[in-house]
Queue: 2 jobs
Job 1
Amino acid sequence: MSGDARNGATALRKTAEALTYLSGFGNEHSSEAVPGALPQGRNSPQRVPLGLYAEQLSGSAFTEPRAHNRRSWLYRIRPSAAHPAFTRTDNGALRSAPFTESVPDPNRLRWNPLPEPAPGTDFLAGLWTLGGNGDATQRTGMAVHLYHANSSMERVFSDADGELLIVPEQGGLLLRTEFGLLHVEPGHVALIPRGVRFRVELLGDASDDARTTHPTARGYVCENYGAPFQLPDLGPIGANGLANPRDFRAPVAAYEDAEADGHTAEPVEVVNKFCGNLWTAMYDHSPLDVVAWHGNHVPYTYDLRLFNVIGTISYDHPDPSIFTVLTSPSDTPGLAGVDFVVFAPRWLVGEDTFRPPYFHRNVMSEYMGLIEGAYDAKAEGFVPGGGSLHNMMSAHGPDRETFERASAAELRPQKIDDGLAFMFETRWPVTATAQAAHAEHLQASYDDVWQGLERHFRAGGRP
Ligand SMILES: O=C(O)Cc1cc(O)ccc1O
Ligand SMILES: [Fe+2]
């Protein structure tokens, strides 16, 4: 990395670390980068302050119930409508629902991390689809993507097909969005709502040493075609707990204006994912030109280590739905299109209890990833940046080594704080893409982790 590039990365990180945010989940936020830019008392005045254009961005139908209604008003230098025609561009390794390249596979599958990307791979080019379900054109289902990038985006991306839940595993990210800037590090997540334009810039590792090497970024993305993620109901848990609403952070308004001092704006490539395909157009200005905004269809971040973990203080452990950070409800109450679940550091105190995840078969399909460290059901082979897929009704649970260790362990209070795992759990089976089903980094003998689980049964006697 050249001295200039290093200074650039350091400056970018300083920008990221100095950001301020608005607090709260689902709020009616408002923000202005220039005082007086936000119209007061109405959304669409005859003339918008400072000569801005008013524009509504709808994330729900106008007519959806108030509790589900999502829209924001953006006050921008140019209206979004001022752009040339989009033309098709290469989808790269991005695939969309319906997933028809492979037959749905009942086998337990596990992948190692993605291989190194070619030089100059930005976040968008680095997206690699593992699989998913539903239909992007019907706004149902979800896709699991991974990304591995080594270059900041210069172009801008938006996804008409769904919202993007970005789960970094390596490398900090600066997200420049229409609503302002967001900073995420591994252990945080970011949510870009449907249709919101953004650019991903790479910050590298938070430690100084790593910043002297070329920044790379790796992680996971859940593309949710269905209803926007919301906080789960808490039921008997009460009014507090799990992910607390005030810990979600939305950006403050910030805009790009290359023409500010009479300069000519550089053309900006804008890529739009629409019904499964990528489309591109060259804009004569940056679409990240929103000077003020208000509304509830906004991007946000959340630090997973702030998750208030609830579990047993007697015996057994609750089903992992107790670890739900965000849920996308489907049309059947209690049955999520997709849940985002985190296995955060926590104490295990259950008495006379097999403490790791139990053996089970689940009508829901579970994709699991690892952000850091280890996961308590797997002694080895499930590594940060890798992932496992336990599809509808497939039998899974602790590997042999974990089973033997946990069955013999002395049950003292034990802190699990050596890892951060997550799950995208969906009501529909996940069909792998061809590239995932035939990937070199697909593990050949995952089934073997359950080999050698010996018979201990003796009729008429205790083992
Ligand atoms: O499969 C997994 O590891 C996730 C999981 C954890 C747990 O404690 C119970 C059920 C479950 O699906
Ligand atoms: Fe499971």
Job 2
Amino acid sequence: MISLLQSLSPISSSPTSRNRNGVRPPLPNHIIQYSRRSFYVRNSRSEDDYHSTLKALKSRGRIPRKSLGQHYMLNSSVNEQLSSAAGVEDGDLVLEIGPGTGSLTNVLVNAGATVLAIEKDPHMAVHVRERFASLDQLTVMFIFAPDKIYEF
Ligand SMILES: C[S@@+](CC[C@H](N)C(=O)[O-])C[C@H]1O[C@@H](n2cnc3c(N)ncnc32)[C@H](O)[C@@H]1O
């Protein structure tokens, strides 16, 4: 984990932050608008991950829960960097804690890894299981209580 973190480039400042004169810098290309608490993306793979997950959750009467750290990746190229920095390759077995929308999971399985994903929120676990239902490269488990783990 330490070598993974050391090999990643520093994270740039938030797109919503203002410079010293109180002026916001131009938005990166994939971001079209931001409000006080959120911003919206266009034409990127992560838009699909994020918005399809929001729709799937909404159809079950759910919204992301901040108490579970459910902040999701909008820039999927970061997932590619994570996978590449970890040297994930064909045939690897990866333990992913908290797959959320499955955006990193997707990159890992595309790299040829078999993924064991453990998700605390059963709604997210169902979502990610359904998303990759056609693959036998993924096992999703969810934690019901610290001593009870269920496999899908
Ligand atoms: C930051 S989000 C996942 C990000 C994911 N890579 C994405 O972009 O969609 C963290 C996920 O971890 C899950 N989670 C939180 N606490 C957990 C725990 N103790 N064990 C397993 N999963 C947990 C949350 O429900 C959430 O889906």
